[in-house]
Structures are given as structure tokens and as C-alpha cells.
Design brief:
single chain; 306 residues; alpha/beta; Arc Repressor Mutant, subunit A; D-Maltodextrin-Binding Protein, domain 2; 3 domains; five-stranded mixed beta sheet; three-stranded antiparallel beta sheet; 13 helices
């Protein structure tokens, strides 16, 4: 009896776990028709339909649902094999399109160096960085719309895997002219001024909540923006108090606001989909580990001038 090929199983897994066949086809660099052909070949080999195509959108049949865990086991084994050959994978010249996600802080610090390194190692690879908060990136990665992402913290989603790559360190800051900035700590300043911060879906939410709890502090008013550059700019204008990467404070001519308890570092991870055995993932992981550096001077339009 013929056995399913790894390429057939890979096509089936991506089609079953992505939002649609078009997204799945992009991830394995196939046309939709080629992806459908591999799935049809797999169905013919198994003698069972894996997708019900009678409706507006193809959905898994009972046989497809049963096959999915076994397929994941095979692809995870292939991914483990690829990681043992990590050095060799890094030497393979990659082609096609790579869509990946990073947060705003990454985009303002290490992302340009990472893109330059990838282009040097893989000049035929078309890169499409996508910048957003961590919650959005995780969802898009889980839906198959991104190949990988570098996101704060380990993923809580069972379909994603995480590998630590670095950490960012933060400090409370305010404009020198903000009333009380020279003598009050951040908890006291938050009783007088708005907290300027990122939205709840950002990775910094966890460290902020932990700090507020440890210091029995409350932010009575918040100004929320999903851009680190905008947060830094508002702090420079004396709009309120907030925290920034520690080395930005002096660079942006802000006043560091000390407190009894420092903010915890925010750890970042390279995240990818479980079962993704492509060479692309094995090649991108070491490049990301080597370039993730949040101490790089910020690229902030309109905030670094005096």
C-alpha cells in the first residue's frame, strides 16, 4: 500500500490549520491548485476524504480530524531533525516570501540590522515585516498569516512554540519640567499625572501590572497609544509619566524617575507554529538570536532632537 509523503502531509496540515487554502499555499510556496492537488493525492492514498468541500469553505471531515494529530507528530519529528542540522540549514539559500511579525520596540531597535543580515545571507528571499502589538502578532501567527514572530513572553497558545532570544529593560521617566518629577517616585506621580503607555494587548502590560501590584499603585488616568515613538514624544512634552527602554531616558533628555521596586525585564521569544518543519524556520532562528538587541539607539522621528 502506498504511503503518504511528507509533502502531502505538510500540505494537509497547513490547509487544516490556516484560515484558508490561499494562506496555506503561501506558507509552503505553492499555488492553491498545487496545494489542492497534494491533498487530493493524499486522500487517494488513504482512500478517505479529508475535507468536506460541499459548503462555502472546506472543513475537515471526521477522517481529517483523526489524521491531524498524527500528521503533527510527523511534522514535529521533521522539525526536530531540522534543528539538529541547524548549521547546515543556515547555509541553504532561501527563496520565496517570508512574512514575519515584530513589535514596535523591535522595529525601532534591532529590526533594521536583522533585515540586513537576512538579505545578506538569503538575497533571493523576499521579506515582509509586519509591526503590531503582541496579541495581534500571536493571532496572525496562529492563523498561518505569518511565518514567525518575535514577541514578548512565551506564547500561551498550544499551537505555537517559543524560543527565548533576548530581553528589554525599562525605567520610569518623565519630562524634567513635569511637576513633581524631581522629588516624587512613579507611584506618587501617577496620582497626579496620566500614565502614558501601550495598549492592554502589548507585552509590557504584564510587567506594568506586576509593578503596580507590588507598589500598591494605581493609574487613575491612562493615555494609551500603540507606538513607542508616540509614547516617548508625549513624555517629552510633559503629558504624563511612563516607562521607556532604560537607555532611551538620557538619549531623549528625560528625567529618570526612581522607585523602590524597578520594573522587571521583558523577555522576548522567537515564536513559530508547532509542526512547521520548513528550512526557513531553522534558518531564521539563529539570525534572530544574533540580532535581537534592545540596547540599540532608537529610531524615533521627531523625538530625538533637542
Amino acid at each position: 500500500m502506498p504511503q503518504p509523503s511528507v509533502k502531502q502531509l505538510e500540505a494537509f496540515w497547513w490547509a487544516a490549520t490556516c484560515t484558508n487554502f490561499a494562506t496555506a499555499a503561501e506558507r509552503v510556496h505553492l499555488s492553491v491548485s498545487s496545494l489542492s492537488k497534494r491533498i487530493a493525492e493524499l486522500e487517494a492514498t488513504l482512500g478517505q476524504a479529508l475535507f468536506d468541500r460541499s459548503g462555502h469553505r472546506a472543513v475537515l471531515t471526521e477522517a481529517g480530524e483523526r489524521l491531524l494529530p498524527a500528521t503533527l507528530d510527523v511534522l514535529n519529528a521533521m522539525a526536530a531533525l531540522g534543528r539538529t542540522l541547524d548549521a547546515g540549514a543556515a547555509q541553504v539559500a532561501l527563496r520565496g516570501r517570508c512574512r514575519f511579525g515584530v513589535g514596535d520596540l523591535s522595529a525601532l531597535t534591532w529590526l533594521p540590522a536583522f533585515v540586513a543580515a537576512v538579505r545578506q545571507a538569503h538575497p533571493q528571499l523576499e521579506l515582509e515585516p509586519f509591526v503590531d502589538v503582541g496579541g495581534v502578532l500571536e493571532r496572525r501567527l496562529a492563523d498561518g498569516e505569518l511565518d514567525f514572530a518575535v514577541i514578548a513572553g512565551r506564547s500561551s497558545r498550544s499551537e505555537l512554540l517559543s524560543q527565548p532570544v533576548g530581553a528589554a529593560h525599562f525605567a520610569w521617566a518623565a519630562a524634567p519640567g513635569l511637576p513633581g518629577a524631581g522629588r516624587l517616585g512613579p507611584a506618587a506621580l501617577l496620582r497626579r499625572h496620566p500614565l502614558v503607555t501601550l495598549p492592554q494587548s502589548a507585552g509590557t502590560t504584564r510587567l506594568l501590572d506586576d509593578w503596580l501590584l507590588a507598589n500598591r499603585a494605581t493609574a487613575h488616568e491612562r493615555i494609551v497609544c500603540n507606538s513607542w515613538g508616540a509614547v516617548a514624544g508625549m513624555l517629552r512634552q510633559g503629558v504624563g509619566v511612563g516607562f521607556l527602554p532604560a537607555h532611551w531616558v538620557d538619549a531623549l533628555q528625560l528625567r529618570a524617575v526612581g522607585g523602590r521596586t524597578p520594573l522587571a525585564p521583558l523577555h522576548y521569544a522567537f515564536q513559530w507554529r508547532r509542526g512547521d518543519a520548513r528550512t526557513l524556520i531553522a534558518a531564521m532562528q539563529p539570525l534572530a538570536r544574533a540580532r535581537v538587541d534592545f540596547s540599540v539607539s532608537p529610531v524615533l522621528a521627531g523625538t530625538a532632537d533637542s
